[in-house]
Amino acid sequence: MPGEKSRAEGRSEEMMAAALDLFARHDVSSVTIKDIAKALRINTALIYYYFDSKDDLFRACIKYCIERTVGNFRRIEGHRGDAVKMIAAWFETHAQMYTEIRQLVKVILDYGTSGNKTKGIDAVVEEFYQQESRILSDAIRLGIRQGMFLRVNVRQAALFASTHLDGIMVRSMIQKDLDVPAAIRNLERVFFSHLGCRTARSGTRAAPAVGGRTKSVAARALAMSL
Predict the structure, then answer these.
(1) Count of CB atoms within 10 A of residue 41's CB?
(2) Exposed, middle or buried, 218 (CB in 10 Å: 0-12/13-18/19+)?
(3) Residues 6 or more apart from 115 whose CB is under 8 A from it?
(4) Which of 18, 62, 173, 194 is 20 to 30 A from 99 (CA-CA)?
(5) What architecture does CATH give domain 2-225?
(6) How far apart are the C-alpha atoms of 193 and 150, rounded to whole Å?
(7) What are phi and psi of 31, to 5 degrees?
(8) d(C-alpha 87, C-alpha 104), whole Å
(9) Burial of 156 (0-12, 13-18, 19+ CB in 10 A)
(10) Dihedral sign, Cα of residue 209, residue 210, residue 215, residue 216
(11) Span 178-214, pLDDT tens digits
């Protein structure tokens, strides 16, 4: 029944949220199903009712966080016809959800350096970065076709944004007082400058790229890194 399904989904999401928090605060390999059950004040059998194993729960946690991230992006973006809004929505998603995304980055880092990797979890992690690459690359190509962006190397530009967004999350784990939303918005300004696009966060229409001869110092530095 719909009501029962909704309650079941809510319960499993509660478990995934608690598990993700523990996985992020501790080494993934050290967290047990018993630890998660204790944090939720439930019996371990209830967790095993929803998830086959710790690996299954871990994979579900990553997938759930990714789905929430992409879902938030789609909500902010509204439609796919505006290249500037598409890119701005991806940065804004990271600014809004940085606590959860930072947890995601932390557990992926822990998983990546562990000796206990599985094809199922590898596939979920890879799909996230493929989705991010598609979102950014599609927007950049659209902006180039519309004359809003310079003719940059699309793959490298998308990789730069993705890598530096992850970098901000990692830096915030080291520097606890880092203003993550401000750092993300600074990166966004540099990225748009590299694309030759003058834009404002107020929602005004971006100015089109002009020939590509005038670039800011920040944009030139970014171009050199690409």
Answers:
(1) 7
(2) middle
(3) none
(4) 194
(5) Orthogonal Bundle (1.10)
(6) 10
(7) -85, 135
(8) 21
(9) exposed
(10) negative
(11) 999 999 999 999 999 999 986 645 444 555 555 544 3
Q: Is 82 helix (H, G, I), strand (E, B) or coil?
A: coil
Residue 94 tokens, joined: 């990271």
Four-CA torsion 164, 84, 204, 146, nearest 10 degrees:
140
pTM over 0.85: no
Q: Alpha-carbon torsion 184, 186, 192, 198, what sign?
A: positive
Q: In this structure, are residues 166 and 120 in contact, taking their beta carbons and an 8 Å threshold?
A: no
> Could you give the CA distance from residue 190 to residue 84 in angstroms, rounded to a whole number?
14
Domain ranges of the chain: 2-225
Residue 118's identity, in one-letter code, is T
